[in-house]
Every structure is written in C-alpha cells, then in structure tokens.
Amino acid sequence: MSVNIEKPKIYFCSNCVYPSSSAVSLDFDSENKCTGCQVVSEKKDVDWESRKFALFDILKEYEGKNNSNYDCVIPVSGGKDSYFQIHLVTKVLNLNPLLVTYNANNYTKTGLENLQNMREVFDCDHIFFTPSVNTLVKLNKIGMTMMGDMNWHAHMGIRTIPIQTAVRYNIPLMFWGEHGRSDVGGMFNHNDFIEFTYRAFLEHDSRGFSWKDAMIEAKKHNITLNSNHLDPWRYPKDEEIERVGVRGLFISNFFYWDANKHGPMMVEQYGFKESEESFERTYRRMSNLDDMHENGIHDYMKFIKFGYGRCSDHASKDIRSGKLTRDQAIAEVKSRDHVKPRDLNRWLNYVGWTEEQFDSLADTFRDPRVWWIKNGKWWKHNLWGDSSSYGSVKLDKDKWIKFYNE
Known about the structure:
Number of domains: 2
Helix content: 40-55%
Radius of gyration: 22 Å
Oligomer: single chain
C-alpha cells in the first residue's frame, strides 16, 4: 500500500527548543516565544528575600497545631533536587522533616548511593516504600498498554505514598520541589503561589487515570490484579485530608530554583554524585538517577509520542538559565532525542516482552500532529529545519491512518 500523508508542520519556540507538540501545554507569543521561557524570564524580577519571609509567616500558622513529632513531609528520590529541598527545610527553615521515598525498582547504582548518603548527611527519619515487584511488573505492562507509559505507577506513587504518610502521621505540611508544569511550560507565573491539589494530581501527574482504570486495563489484558494490591496508589479521601489539614507547598515559590546552581552546591556541601556512566538520550549526568528508565526507554516513548525527548527538556532549561546557546542545544538534540536506549533490554526482560511487541504497541501512541508515514517509515519535521525518517512502521498502517483521519 502506498502511503504519503503529511500534516502541517509543528513549530518550535524561538528561544528554547520546545515544539508546539509538547507533552506539557505551551502557548506562544507573537515572536513565537513559549510560555515556559516567558515565565522563567520573570525570575530575575522576584523579590526572593520577601518570599522567604512570606514562608516564615505561613510556618507560624502551624506553630502549636501540629500533633506529630515531625514538622513536615518531604517526598524525595535522593536526587539533587531532593538534597536541595532537605537543605532548605532543615538548614534555612530549621524544621524536622519526615522523608518519604517511593521506590519504582529502577534505581541506578549511583542513585542508590546518593540515597544512602542523603540519609546520613541530613540525619532525618526516612520511610522508603517498595511495592511488591510482582505488582510493579504488572503495573509496568498496564501503564504501557493504557497510555504508553510504563512508569505511570511511579508518577502516581511518588504523590500518593507521601500524602498517605502525612495522613497516617498527622503531619499537615508537605514540601514539594518545583511546580513542574510552571517550570517547564509556564502554566502559572511566580505570583500565583500554586499549591499541590488532588485535581492537579489526577489531571497532570496521573494523566487522568486512577487505580480504577488500572483494574479495568488489567481485566482487558487478562492480568491478575487484586484491588487491594493497589492501595499504595490510592489518594486519601477528602475527609482524611481535611482531618489532618494536609497542605502541599512548592518550595520554588519561595526560593530561587535553578538546578544548574543548586546541583553543584549539593555536590560540594553534601557529597552528591553525578552518574559515572553517560546517558544516551541526554548529556546531563545529574538528573533522574533514581530511575534508569526516566532518561531511557520511558523518555524514548515521549519521542515516539510527541517527537522530542529528555535532551530537549534539559537543553531548554539550560538555554533559559544561560548555560547553553540555542545552537549548542540544537546540536545536542539532533544527536540524542531519537536514540533508542540500551535499557530497553532490561525492561523487556523485566516484563517478558519482545522488542517487536514493544515497537508495535509504541507505534499506536504516535501523535498524528507530529508523525506521518511515507514508504513504510515514520517521518517528522525537525527542529533544525528538515524532515527525517525514524524507523519502520510496525503496526497495521490502515489502523493508524483511520485514527489519523478521525
């Protein structure tokens, strides 16, 4: 069958390298500058000293009202951002936090070393939650078939486990790091003081799916899964949240947030380690060490879906902070965003799939705004101005074209 269908070109931010097909919603001004770049540029005009004292005022509201031995909960992975959060909470705010980690069973060697070091240098109590590996394998499959994201359970778990812990230990305050969709896409500006909510969790972090959808997906694919197995991924009930008064604050609302600055600071002050081994899909060695698939096959699926990957994420942030020029960023993206990484073999063995099964399913999630088929191959427009093919079509072309035309 001869197929040659082409959609209108996607376009790219004139300042960073994000495409209009971004997984995080973006808007663009008349000069084609994305909202992420616009909001980040506002940072220099924020009075960060006043923000710090505004947070002190919030903390005063909780004096004498906390029935726990802990002042707050901090969800942590053991990464550079976790170190920075704990540093601010313990050294600047002088609070006694309870650290909570969700273990997706994908830690790198360096990531585990950083986690252990974090426990020791900050001397905080720490809950490290690891679900049953058998359940995790099933949820890897379910996440992949349901939305093309094998790490869906991890995006859920790092939110639900800490909030469950806050309810269980009667700890009203939680400190998250940066608000991701504002930091990346400019969803909110620095004067909105956005807080963590269930709505944001459901719509953004869990992509509109809940543990109930996982049960439905399991039944569809004859995967044996008991609803009790999914307790770790259930968000507490409203009555429980209200009883404790759980409130999630983003620390980036009160302190200047730039990983290029606080990352090296955590290395120098607390012994944080970057990866000894380079990643294939990004040039950074400090990010996502808690989950080898975040920089790898999980992120490769973002390329399959939306036509860009982790290197574009990191390069865009580094352009905004002045670490890279746009030309340098484009060169990195050109060499990395499309790479199919070696950790795929680890994941395929983990869930018992073949690479052909993976590729065929992955193809069904390709965004028709980005991809088209020509001569049995997938094509897309590129940041650097031309169009290129990226692999052979694995699924039934008629099915994808029918979806495309709808």
